[in-house]
Description:
The structure is a single chain. 35% of the residues lie in helices and 22% in strands. The chain contains 19 helices and 25 strands. Strands 3-2-4-1-10-9-11-15 form an 8-stranded antiparallel beta sheet, with helices on one face. The protein has a 7-stranded antiparallel beta sheet with strand order 5-6-7-8-12-13-14, with helices on one face. Bound molecules: 2-deoxy-2-amino glucitol-6-phosphate. The site of 2-deoxy-2-amino glucitol-6-phosphate has 16 residues, from helix 9.
Amino acid sequence: MCGIMGYIGPRDAAGIVLGGLECLEYRGYDSAGVALAEGHKIGISKCVGSVANLKAQLAKNALSGKMGIGHTRWATHGGVTRENAHPHVDPDGKVVLIHNGIVENFHELGEEFSKKGVRFASETDTEVAAFLISSLYKDDPLLAIREACARLRGSFAFVILFSDIDDRYYCVRKGPPLVLGAAAGEAFCASDVTALLPYTHDILFMEDDEIAELSTEGIALYGFDGTRKEARTKTVDWDASMTSKGMYPHFMLKEIEEQGSVLRKTLTGRIGNADEGGSGEESAGKGGIDLNAEFPFSEENARSFRRVHLVACGTSCHAAAVAGRLADKFTGLDVRVEAASEYRSGSVICDAQTLAIFVSQSGETADTLAAARQARAKGARCLAVTNAVNSSLARELGAVLELRAGPEIGVAATKTFMGQLAALTLLVLWIGKRKGNLSREKELRLTEELARLPMKLEKILGQGETLRKMAESYKDAFGFLFIGRGASHAIGMEGALKLKEISYVHAEAHAAGEMKHGPIAILDVHLPVVAIAPKDDLYEKTLSNIQEARARNAPIIAVASEGDEDIRRFSNDCFFVPGTENELTPFLTVVPLQLFAYHLASILGREIDRPRNLAKSVTVE
Length: 621
Ligand code: AGP
């Protein structure tokens, strides 16, 4: 949450910082601000609203400088006002600071300072942190930062300017992500690697409890104890063009349409090509799954697993829920799927016989990280399934299955959900295979069908106009009830989440069999029911639930399998997806729901890539 960008070098810092903020706006967009240093004079401009507002403000009152920092905010402490927007300056005017995270003891510190007569201009924890650093600063900025960090509790990524220093700025990480990059005579920082890609692909991912000094000489890295550390960098192979919308009106639509190619990338090298034979020893013969190179646990470890936990938040948790159904069927293990925020606060049985899988597109979600730390401390074998191989989750767990979806900018996750479905399906089947619960014949049927799915996805994606028209006819709906059974229930939850996130229309999802236990009471002619009813083992039961809803006059929108003529009779609108193996229907049924949500939000005139109250990466609890 919150986007941060910083620059020092020969170029105009304002343009670079504003460009970075635009790129990072998916992290927060309720207010924005920059500080530009021109010699010892620091100019600040901030405003409520988006980076576009800030740019307009700067067009009237330009600021310049060769060193600058900027922030786009997702409010935690203090309302959305200009005063609470970052950067913050301490009351003595010595320190200018931007912040992502929460300083938990800011009340306590604020009161201590107020008693000494300090008057703060904002309601934020950030201003208190700025004053703390300022009050400790004599002539050694590093020492002041270190002493301040020792007094601060909570999580924080800071970028700091000192008004008497015009050739360096400082970054601090304890919790929220910060990445650094250096090119000849320039040094950048940002919350996310996407903002640095136009300038460098050699990225330094700051660890917790580190302080960096950035100057035209490069990056000097220190621990909180003051020891100098090696400035290690990693090369990121994402391309800057991947972070542009191109011809699309929204990132979300672009990312939905990329799902066929995402699926191909996620599967590449992990399933044997049925025509060429499998690539790994395990998949000797044609086809088959091959995670040999990536599965981080030994044969012996894998045999000892008794439990598999799938833990995540939001959309990632829905992918985990789909995988959970598959794991029930193929692993023979005791399967638990849980939201990270719940998992971390319960007394979950979790030990060396537990395979704990943490699913996160960003790898920076605070609850997922906390849950993973807890499972690791209990001795579980932990694995990250993430799109960000250099994220905190991936680095801390050291065992990663990568999604390979490329950067996702839209706040509503779509293509990474597809990558998660693919990666988790392969993982679960791989475990099933090792456990002797997946027959060779079934393995081949599934992998051959997985290889065909991108084409089937593309067929669905070609029907965007049908879904736009469908959305148009439901634009006045009071809300939507999604129903499905088994993995289709998880897809219903994902469909409802997408709709809520970007259209702000109420939507809820229930297991279809639960409808009679309460939700059916809300049905009437104004509440459409979206039924996810592919032709699988549970189809007939779902069809009965559709009839029950129809009998209460609810309009029915069915997502069904091609060739299913029966369902037409009970539905007002049907969207047909190509037939597939029963276990793989989620890959196809989710796409019309994403497109339906997208078009409804577009018709309602919503800010699709920047939905209200949300941020892409939830780095605070
Ligand atoms: C998805 O559309 C949401 N933006 C949100 O639910 C998201 O999936 C959740 O915050 C988890 O994020 P992560 O995958 O980066 O951990």
